[in-house]
Amino acid sequence: MKDSTLYDIAFSGFGQFYEAYTQVFEASLNSFKPAKPKEKGADETLPAETFSPFNGRLFLFGYPENFNSTNPTKGAYEEVAEFRGVRQDCSIRFDVSPAKGLTLEKVFEQKKGLIRGGSAGKATVGGQPALTLTGAATKDVSRRMYFVV
């Protein structure tokens, strides 16, 4: 059959040890959950609706379960984290560096050249005010940067 899966679960123990481990066997059996069938028509390359936690040194973040953490080079930043989607053409990146006493607006002014022709906007991140810069990395590739102090 192409649409079925057989699960064969067996427990064994020598002599009196089988009875001694009955509770362990029952707990294991009760905790078993078969895999859920794939939904027809669901695009597995889209971000998952469930999230996994990332606990960095300087921030916490929830990312889609089907994204993978990468190891970007740290460079001049205090902390760097990057997560990529299944297709590897969608990513979330954090570059954390000291603000050195600068205001959000000053940091934004220094960094706004990172996206030529980008449009500025306002947002909140983790309840903190943020400024955004939205533009195109290349043709047909959009990106948005969030700046938070």
Give an account of the 3D structure:
The protein is of the alpha+beta class and 149 residues long. Helices cover 15% and strands 34% of the residues. It has 3 helices and 8 strands. The strands form 3 sheets. Strands 3-4-5 form a 3-stranded antiparallel beta sheet, with no helix packed on it. A hairpin with a 4-residue loop joins strand 1 and strand 2 (60-64). The N and C termini lie far apart (57 Å).
Topology of helices and strands:
Elements: H1 16-20, H2 22-31, E1 51-55, E2 60-64, E3 68-70, E4 79-84, E5 91-96, H3 104-111, E6 119-125, E7 128-138, E8 141-148
Features:
single chain; 149 residues; alpha+beta; three-stranded antiparallel β-sheet
Structure summary, number of beta strands = 8
Strand content: 25-35%
Estimate the global geometry from the Cα principal axes.
elongated
Helix proportion: 10-25%
Number of helices: 3
Order of helices and strands: HHEEEEEHEEE
Major sheet summary line: 3 strands, antiparallel
**Structural class from helices and strands?**
alpha+beta
How far do the termini sit from each other? 57 Å
Spatial order of the strands forming the largest sheet = 3-4-5
Oligomer: single chain
How confident overall, as mean pLDDT? 87
Residue windows where pLDDT falls under 50 for at least 5 positions: none
